[in-house]
Amino acid sequence: MASIPFYGWEAFYDEDRHLQADQAPKSGRLYTMYHGTSVQKARLIITTGFRQSPGGMLGPGVYVSRDQKKAERYPLQSLPTDRVVLKLSIDCGKVKRIDKDNHPLQKSWHSQGYDTAWVPPNCGMKAVPSGLEEDCVYDPKRIEVTDIALAPNTTILNELKQLVAQNKKGPSNSNTSGACTVCKLKLGLAHTVQPCWGCGETICALLTKHKCTR
Predict the structure, then answer these.
(1) What pTM does this model have?
(2) pLDDT digit string (tens) for 126-145?
(3) Are the C-beta atoms of 75 and 37 separated by less than 8 Å?
(4) SUPFAM superfamilies, from UniProt (predicted)?
């Protein structure tokens, strides 16, 4: 078999893991989503984490959306001066699509082994008159606040951003969270770091670009 010279590669990543509203999430992936809440509850969530809602359209869990415009509507009864949108990184786990009223697993999806329920946009469910995409994550531990997408004013924005920075999870010794020291990607499982077979430079398979130097 003939040998093939290998000189490197170049790739492009959407590190924020943004999905369009109508794109089906892939199980076991980390995605960026949003959650709308009040100023005081935002402080509490950032410092102590999310708590599972006891019920709702999709049963117990944390309700989020990849559509920031939907998150900006919440809390529904609050004035805009008391609304905050948290930017989240979510490990979706195993995902179940719920796309019609009275779906047989609408509130029992978790008991069937699913971690997240996904309602696609404009699916016709009467419980979602806005037609905007929605998700329910059963386990709050799958959710991390990474930034503030919206706040009533600059003072509150800066305060909440500082809280997020103080409470961010640091990288572990096994490098399973935080940024890879080589490719700098911040999310995902631990990356294998090794010398390049061609030039000997330390590389990670998820580097966006590598060119052999020899």
Answers:
(1) 0.71
(2) 989 999 999 999 999 999 99
(3) yes
(4) ADP-ribosylation
Cα–Cα distance for residue pair 16/211, rounded to 1 Å:
25
CA distance 210 to 23: 31
49-78: b (≥16 Cβ within 10 Å) or e: ebeeeeeebbbebbbbbbbeebbbebeeeb
What the block records as the tokens of 158 is: 């800066």
| Residue 96 · residue 104 · CB < 8 Å | no
Spatial contact of 13 and 112, defined as CB atoms under 8 Å apart:
no
H/E run at residue 48: helix 39-48
User: What percent of the chain shows pLDDT beyond 90?
Assistant: 60
Let me know if 145 is exposed, middle or buried by CB neighbors in 10 A (0-12, 13-18, 19+): buried
Determine the Cα angle at 88 with ends 47 and 177, to 5°: 80
Cα–Cα dist 79/58, whole Å: 26
Reported as a single tens digit per residue, the pLDDT across 103-125 is 999 999 999 999 999 999 999 99
Residue 185 has pLDDT above 60, yes or no: yes
pLDDT in tens, 17-55: 556 666 666 666 789 999 999 999 999 999 999 999 998
CB 6 within 8 A of CB 198: yes
Q: In 49-192, where does DSSP find H-type helix? A: 68-71, 154-167
**C-alpha–C-alpha distance, residues 158 and 120, integer Å:** 33
